[in-house]
Write a structure and sequence with these properties.
The protein is mostly helical and 167 residues long. A hairpin with a 5-residue loop joins strand 1 and strand 2. Helix 1 runs antiparallel to helix 4 and helix 3 packs antiparallel against helix 5.
Length: 167
């Protein structure tokens, strides 16, 4: 398996899954007459980030993960989305961006040094394989799962197949 095949499909699965989850959340708000901003601002616990931020993080992790692993310029992704439509547009742009990477761009990325910030004044360097398996994918799945959990907790009728993008 190429490193591209280990990276890109995993990112795309969660990005597409979240697009489907947001579509169901939007329909839920319409059917139940819920202000979408209430659901987008929902959290599992007061000290956790809201649904909108969880989705933005997944987008950011996929975008910056591809850029860092391929030694491409890391794009800036301001978190300005405040609606389901805007979040779906962000995910669509992220999907296009991730799809734009070619397998040859990932050649040698597993052994390449990847340096990334952790906090405002510190950075870490890992080999690409370690970055992917110990940082990028676990964080991606954490934030995607948290988004799913927020939606499920708020009564959106979704299940594991929705999370996996199989519906």
């Amino acid at each position: 398996m190429s490193f591209h095949d280990a990276v890109v499909p995993a990112y795309l699965q969660m990005l597409n899954s979240l697009t489907g989850l947001i579509t169901k959340a939007e329909a839920h708000c319409t059917a139940k007459k819920i202000d979408p901003s209430v659901l987008l601002g929902s959290r599992l616990f007061p000290d956790m980030l809201p649904l909108s931020k969880q989705i933005q993080f997944v987008s950011e992790l996929a975008t910056k993960g591809c850029a860092r692993l391929t030694q491409s310029e890391v794009p800036s992704t301001p978190d300005t989305e405040i609606s389901f439509a805007a979040l779906k547009q962000r995910l669509a742009k992220t999907i296009d961006y991730v799809n734009s990477f070619k397998p040859e761009q990932f050649e040698g990325a597993d052994a390449r040094d990847v340096t990334f910030p952790v906090g405002s004044d510190k950075s870490i360097t890992m080999k690409g394989q370690q970055f992917l398996s110990s940082f990028s994918l676990p964080n991606l799945y954490f934030h995607a799962t948290t988004a799913y959990d927020i939606l499920r907790h708020n009564g959106v009728e979704i299940g594991k197949r929705d999370f996996l993008g199989a519906n």
